[in-house]
């Protein structure tokens, strides 16, 4: 039998999407495990692990649009639906407690990046004498001013996001090219207010040559590190 990759947990009785990447739901009395059939040999390559991660992200994000879903740290394999169902029953109290911590909440990611990475330079800068030094000083001062304005702007985005979320967490190593990657744990009822506030807060971005985006809803990946055992 093909092993099952344990992706996440949803409360029993919740509607699940019928389109998108293929997945299965293994049901227990109060919970259902979201899983997918995988080739265990994929765990031996970075490409295989990346495929698993993309599958988990696609499946759980589709579910998170409508209901709460607890993500499971990637790599938990089970030999059969019965094995996974038995795990749900045995770990039920712990999993339900973890579900209660994220009840009615989802994650949104706030990101900012350079819209135009090219610096603003004169077409033919002076090359000698006092004019050259003056131009170099002007460009240096302009870069410093812009850098300070950018940092203030990014800080204001974080403050605004934090004011409309239950918790927040910054990625200290954002993806290449990004200046900010900040995760927000948001009550679903507060999402419209969050998006409206962030839309207003992001208005100065264009003048600074920046692009701001909000991504969500998604499972609280940044706020859950749930690790489950393997049974494959």
For the record, the count of structural domains works out to 2
Q: Order of helices and strands, N to C?
A: EEEHEEHHEHEEHE
How many H/I helices?
5
Report how far apart the termini are: 10 Å
Poorly predicted regions: none
Report the sheet with the most strands, covering strand number, pairing sense and barrel closure.
5 strands, antiparallel
As for the CATH topology of the largest domain, it is: Alpha-Beta Plaits
CATH class of the largest domain: Alpha Beta
Tell me, briefly, the overall form: elongated
Q: pLDDT average, as an integer? A: 87
- Topology, number of strands: 9
Q: How large is the radius of gyration?
A: 23 Å
- Quickly give the structural class: alpha+beta
Helix content: 25-40%
CATH architecture of the largest domain: 2-Layer Sandwich
Strand proportion, as a percent range, falls in: 15-25%
Any overview of this molecule?
- Belongs to the gas vesicle GvpF/GvpL family.
- This is Gas vesicle protein.
- It is found in: Gas vesicle.
- It comes from Roseivivax halodurans JCM 10272.
- This protein has 232 residues and is an alpha+beta fold.
- It has 5 helices and 9 strands, in the order βββαββααβαββαβ.
- α4 (129-163) packs antiparallel against α5.
